[in-house]
Design brief:
elongated; mainly alpha
Length: 85
Amino acid sequence: MLFAARSLLLYYLRSRGVDTFEELCSLLVADKLKSNLYGGPLNYVLSLEGEEWFASENVATPSDIYVNSRSDQEVELTRVTTAMT
């Protein structure tokens, strides 16, 4: 079981191009940030990422821009709709 988990982790890190401890930390924080995003902001960040992954600071900035460019009513509607699914 441990071998399988280690193999999956190594595969994931290779697929993301992570070579250093700093990149690993950045990837883990970025993944955690994205796991806490909902609907619109998450889709916006993922659409900007394309084939590469964003470092944590590059996840927070576009999601802030997305939310700040929408009305409060649009953001709340997206949050409620996402929570219901």
